[in-house]
Amino acid sequence: MLYRCISFIATGGALLGSGMNKVGIDTIKQAWDLGFGKISPISIVDVAPTKLFPAVLLANLPQAILSFLYLTYNGLYSCMLGAHEWTHFAHSRIYLRVTNPSANQRSTYYLQLPYSYAIVSTPYATEQDKWI
């Protein structure tokens, strides 16, 4: 997981450096002076494909990358926390999780993640739904 995060950050840095080089920006200060959200001729992306299908793929690439990262996070933490709960069965007696608990039984998690982990990813999942 750490390797994947480092590789994404390195790729982003390389693409940022390449883009700055193409538009003639030499320092971070020059990029900062352009401002966020200001319209400038050098901030327009000119790599737009001429055909429809490649243009659709390029426009939706950030969505695909963010969806992949979300699914990776959710899958990784579901496996890790599931394994952690199973190891607790070996050390102490814990009641099973069921859909409709009665007496000493416990209720299930929503999508297998404890709420403290699910709350972190819920705003992101909500934003993903807005984009679709």
SSE layout and pairing:
Elements: H1 2-23, H2 28-34, H3 52-91, E1 97-98, E2 106-107, H4 115-131
Parallel strand pairs: 1-2
Helix pairs in contact: 3-4
Report what the structure shows.
- By secondary structure, the chain is mostly helical.
- The protein folds into two domains: 35 residues; 84 residues.
- It contains four helices and two strands; from the N terminus they run H-H-H-E-E-H.
- Helix 3 runs antiparallel to helix 4.
- The two termini are 27 Å apart.
- The mean pLDDT is 79.
Largest sheet: 2 strands, parallel
Strand order of the largest sheet: 1-2
Quote the average pLDDT: 79
Portion of residues within helices? 55-70%
Our count of domains comes out at 2
Class of secondary structure makeup: mainly alpha
Total beta strands: 2
Number of helices: 4
Approximate strand percentage: under 5%
First-last Cα distance: 27 Å
User: What is the molecular shape?
Assistant: elongated
Unreliable spans = none
Radius of gyration: 22 Å
Please provide the ordered H/E string of secondary-structure elements: HHHEEH
What keyword list fits this structure?
single chain, 132 residues, mainly alpha, 2 domains, two-stranded parallel sheet, 4 helices
